[in-house]
Design brief:
seven-stranded mixed sheet; methyltransferase activity; Methyltransf_25; Rossmann fold; Methyltransferase domain-containing protein; alpha/beta; 9 helices
Length: about 260
Amino acid sequence: MPREFFPRSASYDRDWIEQHSVGENVLHFTESLSQVMELRPGMRILDLGCGHALSSIFLAREFGVRVWAVDFGVDPGANQLRIEEFGCGELVRPLRADVRALPLPHDFFDAAVAVDSYRYFGTDQRFLSSLVRHLRPDGLLGIVDACTSREISTAEDLKPALRQEWLDGSWYLAHTIDWWRQHLTRTGLLEVTLAELLPGSDAIRTRYLDRFRDDPEESDMVTFMEAEAGDLTGSFRLTARRTGRVAPLEDEGEIPY
């Protein structure tokens, strides 16, 4: 992986990173996002769908920010051990929670990030209202995720060799960069400040295929990516800022912080 794209990540053990990454190297994604977000020591960061908390650890160690590492499917106790292993116990707080119903205060976080996770919950237009209420005025949102070069309405839009893997690999959750820009601004709650193909996207793709080509659990993804040969899929990064519009509240059942 070219060091010029990810100089900070190069100081971490690649085998350890990849062992604890769900898919691509999560530190490459996180570092790419950090290059276009203003991160200052002491900022309060909400890490959505943090997985094994590697993104949270990286942000805390590299930038001195305080991170709430949220994931519903990963044991927070195991994440706590990884966090303490890197000396980040005072900066990173792991939580098991549904990102759609966060037990956290409103107008509290300076930024929220979603590294290779936003497409799994953020295509629901209502999600943005529930998320933005947790950001302070002018708070930031940063996303790194999979994208497509064109919109695919149904699997029938693809050549037959790609259709089954498109469905089995959940590629139908991926969209174009323009789609995401429009999706995130249509409520008036966010102003998108950057949306672009991820620098190093091809290198990240190549490394993923090299790692998982013989892994049966990733066979649907690998088969699809090799068949489309990089013409359809890639990775993107997006940053946005909360506007002054008040996020509507749909319920009053919030869990106290």
